[in-house]
Amino acid sequence: MPNKTIYVSEKDASLFDQAKELAGEAVSSVIVRALGEFVARHQSKQKGMREVSVTVGVAGAEREQRFIGAMVGKWSGFSDDKEWFLKALIYHTQKSNWAVLVETVCKASLLTNKKEWKESGDYLINPKRSELFVGKSPEALKDKLPRELFITLSEHAKQYEIPVEYLDI
To answer: What are the sequence ranges of the domains in the chain?
Structure first.
């Protein structure tokens, strides 16, 4: 069996000692188990990654953007000011960023008050606009997204980071 040497920094020495104490077995088996979970988690993340092509910009002046990622969720709801109805697609990218494509669908009044919508002439407005927001974490996108979309993104991020919760019961 091959020998592998692990160097533990002084700041991590107490964690290493705790693991040794708690394991009740050789620390190497704990490390191998942890490495196995780490590799399995990251390999499963790579599954489903593909080239994603999205259209961003305003109606009539759109442009295409591409990246490698996996769609992990969808969302639809109102802007924080309740003026617009929005749709969003949530992606996790190959470089572990979060990408959220937000599309403005229509004025909220179309869905909430059709009479007002007809009287105001809002049906003449083409609100088609989409934007791709990218951040290293959901927190990096917090101020750019509607509150409900941010909450959805955060929940998807939690589920994506820890797809299986290992319980010691």
So the answer is: 10-46, 50-161
